[in-house]
Amino acid sequence: MSEQKDIFLKKSEEIAFDLKHRATIRFNISKYDAAVDRGMKRYSDLNLAKTRASYVKSLAVNNLHDYLLQFEKNITANGASVVWAENTDEAIDAVKKILIENHSKTVVKSKSMTTEEIELNHHLEEIGVESL
Asked: Which of 116, 112, 114 is nearest to 85 (CA)?
């Protein structure tokens, strides 16, 4: 059995029987359930709301190209830069180039599925940049 698996099993067993942790989880789930209930009550016809949301989502997806160009125009007007990447390699290369040119040692980023999918942290480590 790998060391990581041993650590995971040990920690999961500890946390599973931690009564304080279980109380915290129970409390948070109850808050979530209450919020969902309040949210559902905001709609007199939940199915109609779901249908409308689906329609708006499809409009956004079908017009994403136009929205991205509009976003680029607006954000560059406010002094920001946009980097377009066709694939993972281009995205990683662009980020690495920016960090190297600016002699960056640390990057603070939000949790993002995109950075997870392209394994950005691994690539940052390659160039000696710490990710927070």
From this structure: 114
Which secondary-structure segment (H or E) carries 105? none
Residue 87: strand, helix, or coil: coil
- Tell me how far CA of residue 107 lies from CA of 5, 19, 81, 127, in angstroms: 29, 37, 17, 12
Q: What pLDDT does 52 receive?
A: 97
Structural domain harbouring 57: 43-82
Q: How far is the CA of 37 from the CAs of 32, 55, 78, in angstroms? A: 9, 23, 40
Residues 20 and 57 in one domain: no
pLDDT for residue 129: 92
